[in-house]
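User:
Note these tokens:
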Amino acid sequence: MFDNPDEDRVEEDRADRPLKPALLNGFRRRCPNCGSGPVLKGYLTVRARCCVCGEELQHARADDAPAYLTILLVGHLMAPFLHVVFVAFRPPPMVLATIFCTACVALSLYLLPRLKGMVVAFQWARRMHGF
């Protein structure tokens, strides 16, 4: 009979937020809400709130997910490449180990904060863990 504006606001708050833009912002290590402010302070510490839009980010609980995803991606990217390089060029074992160990560490260090940003953005978009 009568429309209650508070009920509309509650339903709107419960609705899922757009996932794809949030994940892209997370990969860029930006706030999933505004896309401008940094989501991390330092290398892996999640900010309490966005310094641009004020979105609270302290509720994020990424735990071990970014590390697992990093290991999964680096392993799946480097293993076939290692096989192709070994079969095609037959480098000495120490050269191969040095190059691929360095590449694995570099790729892991590059991906880890970006995947953490994506995990935080996924939780924000799905309203998980207090968002």
